[in-house]
Structures are given as C-alpha cells and as structure tokens.
C-alpha cells in the first residue's frame, strides 16, 4: 500500500482524549505526535469531524518542526454543498496556509453521483487556490469513484480505505484504482490485531 510519509500519527480515540479533560492536555498529546520519532517528515491527520484541528494547529505552532517537514491531511466531512469554502475554517483552526492532502470524506453524506461530482469540482477549485497541495477521496467505493472520474479534470491522488487482512478489497477494486492512477492509503490497518 502506498503511504504519503514514512510515519503517520494515528488518531487517538475521542474517549481517550476526553479522559485528558483539558484542551492543553490534548495540545500536549498532539505535540508529541507531531514531534514523533526521528524522521524526515511527519504526517498528521486532523479532520475536524474528529474534533482535532484546533489542537493539531496549536501543537504545530508550538513545535520546532518547519512546515515543509510536516505532512498534514484533513477532510471535508460536512460542508459538501460549498466545498471551495470548507477548507477556510480548517486552515484557520490548523493555523496553516495550506494542507498537503485534502480529502472528500464519506460519499454517503451526499448520496448522489451529481453531489459527488459537484463536490469534486469544488475540491479542484481548492487545489487551484493553493489551499491543498493534493486532493483525494476517503471511503469511496468503485461506483462513487467512477462517477467522479466521469467529470474530473484532476484525478484523486489517493483513496483512503479501511484495509486489513479481514477486509482486503484486493479482488478487483485496488488493482482497478491503480489502473486509474489512484493510490490506496489504508486506515485501521491493525484493526484485526487490536480488536482480537
């Protein structure tokens, strides 16, 4: 599976963050994840649907790592109706001028092919405005991806999917995406181990 960096900061479940009981504890936690182990770059995912963008932004500002050494991903969860405006709130919370990856998250939110296509056109605008270096999708199945490919001027760089030994999707979907020039990034890769 392709990964955008050598090391990826994994999100801590919301329940564990709530145990910390304070925003400053969450900032310290994200600061440790942003600093991470020795590496050339560090990735942090901060979709606001996870409630982490503000804390990640503060941790980035408090770290000594130059922006060009960080790889920041966030997602459009809500706000599909006005995708070009959606990253503004995220960028403000993250205290950044751009993110490295901006993903359309969960096509089931919008439901229709037309809605997916309109949202993707909006994401292409976000990239053209320089608010995202790369754009992609998350949790898109083949029929969602096909609808998007019918109209896109810029193909998604990546499709972030749940992918592990119990959910491989390798029969035809992953090879098909690669034929389209779309890489796969996985989440819950260790789920079978951690949930066993």
From TrEMBL:
Highest taxon of source: Eukaryota
Bias kind Polar residues: ranges: 1-25
Region of interest called Disordered, as start-end residue ranges on this chain: 1-53
Coiled coil (residue ranges): none
Transmembrane feature ranges: none
Keywords, comma-separated and alphabetical: NADP, Oxidoreductase
InterPro entries: AKR, Aldo/ket_reductase_CS, NAD(P)_OxRdtase_dom_sf, NADP_OxRdtase_dom
A molecular-function term among this protein's GO annotations: oxidoreductase activity, acting on the CH-OH group of donors, NAD or NADP as acceptor
Domain NADP-dependent oxidoreductase residues, every copy: 50-191
UniProt cross-references to Pfam families, sorted A to Z: Aldo_ket_red
Record PANTHER family: 2,5-DIKETO-D-GLUCONIC ACID REDUCTASE (PTHR43827), NADP-DEPENDENT OXIDOREDUCTASE DOMAIN-CONTAINING PROTEIN (PTHR43827:SF3)
Family: Belongs to the aldo/keto reductase family.
Protein's name in the database: Aldo/keto reductase family domain-containing protein
Organism per entry: Pochonia chlamydosporia 170
């Amino acid at each position: 599976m392709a990964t955008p960096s050598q090391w990826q900061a994994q999100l801590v479940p919301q329940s564990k963050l709530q145990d910390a009981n304070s925003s400053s504890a969450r900032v310290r936690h994200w600061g440790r994840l942003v600093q991470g182990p020795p590496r050339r770059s560090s990735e942090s995912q901060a979709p606001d649907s996870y409630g982490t963008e503000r804390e990640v932004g503060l941790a980035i500002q408090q770290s000594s790592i130059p922006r060009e050494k960080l790889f920041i991903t966030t997602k459009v969860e809500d706000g599909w109706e006005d995708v070009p405006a959606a990253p503004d709130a995220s960028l403000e919370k993250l205290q950044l001028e751009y993110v490295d990856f901006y993903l359309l998250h969960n096509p089931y939110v919008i439901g229709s092919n037309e809605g997916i296509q309109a949202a993707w056109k909006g994401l292409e605008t976000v990239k053209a405005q320089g608010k995202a270096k790369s754009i992609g999708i998350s949790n898109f199945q083949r029929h969602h991806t096909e609808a998007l490919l019918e109209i896109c001027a810029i193909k998604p760089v990546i499709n972030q999917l749940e992918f592990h030994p119990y959910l491989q999707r390798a029969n035809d979907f992953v090879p098909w995406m690669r034929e389209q020039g779309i890489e796969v990034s996985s989440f819950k890769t260790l789920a079978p181990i951690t949930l066993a």
